[in-house]
Amino acid sequence: MALLSLPSIEEIRKLRRKLGLTQAELAKLAQVSQSLVSQIESGEVDPRLSTLRRIVDALNREETGREVFAEDLLVRDVVSVSPDDLVTTAASIMWAKKISQLPVLEDGKNLGSISEKTITAEIAKGGTKDLARRTVREVMSEPFPMVGMRSRMEVVLSLLQESPAVLVLDGGKVSGIITKADVLPRVRSVLAQGEEVQARPATNSSK
């Protein structure tokens, strides 16, 4: 049976910090000494595969068991257009950034959205010549739904069933955006962990 590749020491250190764990807390979860975790992260020792696997498994359990919120999923660099921008400007931004949709914002207000689907539908109606003179305001669709930073992943997923993106508010201001592509890696991680648990042989504690 092929061995699954393990993350690098640097990746392990980054994940520990992302989860807010100290070296002592990780050591306790993995049932190893704190000094060993410190030596592994500093590169002072080359750990045995079984020890490294124990540490990685502890991190995976902690990450999977931790409730996921919008703030864990969002992309903070929100690319947007204003309602007075030309449709061709919105199209150029989407193609340059390799994204399929944009929120339409004005003075921080979520006024609407525009997508490749919207643009191609307008082209089908009247061709590109007329569209080149039109503004985003004239063709934009409904605004993307909005959630707070501490909204649960399940809420975000539910909204993404009906909308291509969700905006995340922090203090009343748009601070991030989430698409299905941002959520899928986290869902994949949860599913993988579930499969691993199911694959483990059952133990019988009775004698």
Mean pLDDT: 83
CATH class of the largest domain: Alpha Beta
How many helices?
10
Dominant shape:
elongated
> Percent range for helical residues?
40-55%
Low-confidence stretches: 194-207
What class would the helix/strand composition place it in? alpha+beta
The strand line-up of the biggest sheet is 3-4-5
Instruction: Tell me what portion of residues adopts beta-strand conformation.
Output: 5-15%
Query: What is the count of structural domains?
Result: 2
Number of strands: 5
Q: Report the span from N to C terminus.
A: 31 Å
Fold-level CATH name of the largest domain: CBS-domain
Oligomer: single chain
CATH architecture of the largest domain: Roll
CATH superfamily of the largest domain: CBS-domain
State Rg.
Answer: 23 Å
Q: Can you lay out the helices and strands and say which pair or pack?
A:
Blueprint: H1 9-18, H2 23-30, H3 34-42, H4 49-65, H5 70-73, H6 87-97, E1 101-106, E2 109-115, H7 116-131, H8 136-139, E3 146-148, H9 153-160, E4 165-170, E5 173-179, H10 180-199
Helix pairs in contact: 2-3, 2-4
Explain this structure to me?
By secondary structure, the chain is α+β, with helices and mostly antiparallel strands. It folds into two domains: 9-66, 434 Repressor (Amino-terminal Domain); 71-185, Roll (CBS-domain), CATH 3.10.580.10. The chain has helices at residues 9-18, 23-30, 34-42, 49-65, 70-73, 87-97, 116-131, 136-139, 153-160, 180-199; strands at residues 101-106, 109-115, 146-148, 165-170, 173-179. Strands 3-4-5 form a three-stranded mixed beta sheet. The chain has a two-stranded antiparallel sheet with strand order 1-2. Strand 4 and strand 5 form a beta hairpin. Helix 2 crosses helix 4. The protein is elongated and about 70 Å long. 17% of the residues are buried.
